[in-house]
Amino acid sequence: MSLHHFSCHANRFSRSPQIQNMKSFARFFRWLLIIALLAGAGFAVWTRMRPQPVHVVVHAVEIGLVERLVANTRAGTVKACRRADLSPGVGGQITLLPIKKGDRVAAGALLIEIWNKDLTAQVELTKSEGRAAAARAASLKQQVEKASRDAERLKKLHVKAMNSEQDLDTALTQLAIYQADYSAALADEKTSLDRLQVLASEIDRTRLRAPFAGVIAEINGELNEYVTPSPPGIPTPPVVVLLDTSCFYISAPIDEVDAEAIKIGMPTRISLDAFGKRSFSGRVRQIDPYILDREKQARTVSVEVDFVTPAETENLLTGYSADVEIVIDSRANVLRIPSQTVMDGQRVFVFDPRDGRLHERKITTGLANWEVTEVAGGLTLGEQVVLSTDQAGVKDMAAAISGAGP
Predict the structure, then answer these.
(1) With the C-alpha atoms ordered 289, 292, 293, 298, is the resulting torsion angle positive or negative?
(2) What integer pLDDT is reported at residue 211 of this predicted model?
(3) Predicted confidence band at 129 (pLDDT cuts at 50, 70, 90)?
(4) How far apart are alpha carbons 368 and 287 in whole angstroms?
(5) Entry pTM
(6) I want to staple 53 with a disulfide (CB 3.0 to 4.6 A). Which of 30, 75, 355, 399 is the partner?
(7) Looking at the DSSP assignment, which residues form a beta bridge with residue 323?
(8) The dihedral of CA 374, 380, 381, 384: what is its sign?
(9) What is the pLDDT of residue 1?
(10) How far is CA 306 from CA 60, 72, 248, 291, 292, in A?
């Protein structure tokens, strides 16, 4: 076969329908493979680049109690219902100290006595002078009575002209002298008694006594030490600090912006660091009538809170740090959510498990505190609000996976 004849035969074969179909299929398959590879690569890139669902912590809308609370700005302090900073009325050397720190004493008990032997010596001298005056008065009384009888007898004799005028005048004069001496002796006796009262008052000033029953909290002095009263305008430490621990109260500073809402008698909750999570019931008993302005501190008003159940204060110590929550208002059986879920006071994120997305929603709130907020509108019971609002990726219509909150 000639070369020309073979070439013509080959051209006819290559133009046959079967060969053309095979080539078309090969090109189609090649493009299909390229498209599949590109689609797979695109899907992989999209899968890697697409936003992942954000994991959020949610809390269901519930029914419960919501309170409006006011709390102290700095730690409050447990105080005894009465405290007395005591010092003797005069200065001197301590000669009697029958107490020690921690002792319980009765009202009127002697706490300290200052050296007073000079005063007690004056007492004895005055008593002696008083006894002498009393004896002299008794003697003069007898003389007055005798002179009075003599004068009466002479008067009767003078009427009968049995004695002279001079004798009667002498007797009457002697009676008047004795009466004057007797009155002077009685006055001396009275003066001695009055001086004894003065000395008793001066001695009493050297003795420091308990004004009420209580516990000795502090003693600033020892036997034979000298103590001096505070000069005017210069405070000095008290010699004895006495506390009445039969009852306690809390003194706590409240920010001035909250002072107007507080009223005497409002219920409170008291917590003490020393008692862990235990809570005590209290009631507002006093609100200071002025705002305390201290340098580098917020302006506050001091509020005093009584314990409702005194029996609970049996193991309290003065000076414990304390916090108070004053209940300004309260509402029971209302819809509520954790306060941390509320943004700007009116927005929350709601997780919808049906589409797995977050939805920003505007709500109406009522009473609120730092734990829970009343929902007046915008949410229904059981809906799930997002606790972790500051988490990255939390936004409207974001895909999410939820977990229950505490």
Answers:
(1) negative
(2) 94
(3) confident
(4) 24
(5) 0.65
(6) 399
(7) 271
(8) negative
(9) 47
(10) 37, 15, 7, 21, 21
Give the pair of three-digit tokens for residue 182: 């007797």
Contact 378, 342 (CB under 8 A): no
Residue type, 26: A
Asked whether the beta carbons of 323 and 252 are under 8 A apart, the reply is: yes
**Strand 240-255 and strand 226-227: pairing?**
unpaired
The number of C-alpha atoms within 13 Å of 322 and in the hemisphere containing its C-beta is 34
Q: Measuring CA to CA, which residue among 154, 132, 150 is closest to residue 142?
A: 150
Tokens of 309: 């159940």
C-alpha–C-alpha distance, residues 146 and 144, integer Å:
5
On the question of pLDDT at 237 being above 60, the answer is yes
Type of residue at 281: S
The C-alpha atoms of residue 259 and residue 302 are separated, in whole angstroms, by 9
- Amino acid residing at 125: L
Angle at 27 between CA 23 and CA 29, to 5 degrees: 115
Q: How far is CA 58 from CA 72, 285, 354, 382, in A?
A: 31, 41, 15, 11
Contact indicator for 179, 204 with CB cutoff of 8 Å = no
Give the chain's length: 406
CA within 13 Å, CB half, 189? 15
pLDDT tens digit sequence for 317-363: 899 999 999 999 999 999 999 999 999 989 999 999 999 999 999 99
Query: Do residues 234 and 292 make contact, with C-beta atoms less than 8 angstroms apart?
Result: no
What token pair was written down for 204? 């009493």
Q: Can you read off the two tokens belonging to residue 297? A: 């501190």
Answer for the pair 61, 365: CB distance below 8 angstroms, yes or no.
no
